[in-house]
Amino acid sequence: MISKRLFVAILASLASLASMNAYCADGKWVLVSNDICNLRSAANSSSALVEVLPKFSPLKILGEKSGEYYKAETKKGKTGWAHQSVIAASDFVSVSLPDTNLRQAAGKDSQVAFIVQKGWPLRVLDRQDEYLQVEDFEKDITWVHISRVALDPSCIVVKASSTGRTSADEQAPPVFDAEKGVVFKVVSVVSGGWVQVKHVDGNVGFVQASDVWGATVKNL
């Protein structure tokens, strides 16, 4: 097995990755944030249940909203209405515990592909029983147990280096320089292509969104 951080360090001398994928107006993916989400046939709590989805299940927002409900589609193609209070604003999770195994398949006996540390951002592609199929910033697709992740937003530097500044302005004084592979907590997403981030050592600053990958776009 390979430490994902070591894997990143090996790749650091290569050309930096392209900036993260942009989201279109519709078809944006989000996650169930509560223990369950009752997907209903109409935009009200008394309508028939289409499906009950567990936490971290992906939902595609179809661009239509009625009151407090969004029209959404599951990974299996079922459509219905989800209440806004039970869905997260993006399709990202972060690793919540150190030395977390990312496996090649959904199951505790599956081979470990990588070991990642707390805060590592992952995009959720699907859920199977107690495992999430996830993608990282290098487009590696693996599986992680739901007990090892949280909805806390985070991001990772994907450029050779990124400068954190005191404000969302290229002329603002620098606070820190971070190399490729450094992970941050996302404090806030700022208009104009900036993200306010915080490192585990306490440093807080604004970095350009194109320098990082993770929960830096709100889909709702």
Description:
With 220 residues, the protein is mainly β. It has 3 domains: 2-11 and 91-151, Roll (SH3 type barrels), CATH 2.30.30.40; 28-86, SH3 Domains (SH3 type barrels, Roll); 155-214, SH3 Domains (SH3 type barrels), CATH 2.30.30.40. Helix content is 4%, strand content 48%. The chain has 1 helix and 21 strands. The protein has one helix at residues 4-11, and strands at residues 2-3, 28-31, 36-40, 49-54, 58-66, 69-73, 79-83, 92-95, 100-103, 112-116, 121-128, 131-135, 141-145, 149-150, 154-157, 161-165, 174-179, 183-190, 194-198, 204-208, 212-214. The strands form 6 sheets. It has a 5-stranded antiparallel β-sheet, with no helix packed on it. The protein has a 5-stranded antiparallel β-sheet with strand order 20-19-18-15-21, with no helix packed on it. β5 (58-66) and β6 (69-73) form a beta hairpin. It is flat. Residues 7-25 have low confidence and may be disordered.
Q: How is this structure best summarized?
A:
By secondary structure, the chain is mainly β. The protein folds into three domains: 2-11 and 91-151, Roll (SH3 type barrels); 28-86, SH3 Domains (SH3 type barrels, Roll), CATH 2.30.30.40; 155-214, SH3 type barrels (Roll), CATH 2.30.30.40. It is built from one helix and 21 strands.
Topology diagram in text:
Layout: E1 2-3, H1 4-11, E2 28-31, E3 36-40, E4 49-54, E5 58-66, E6 69-73, E7 79-83, E8 92-95, E9 100-103, E10 112-116, E11 121-128, E12 131-135, E13 141-145, E14 149-150, E15 154-157, E16 161-165, E17 174-179, E18 183-190, E19 194-198, E20 204-208, E21 212-214
Parallel strand pairs: 1-10
Antiparallel strand pairs: 2-5, 3-4, 5-6, 6-7, 8-11, 8-14, 9-10, 11-12, 12-13, 15-18, 15-21, 16-17, 18-19, 19-20
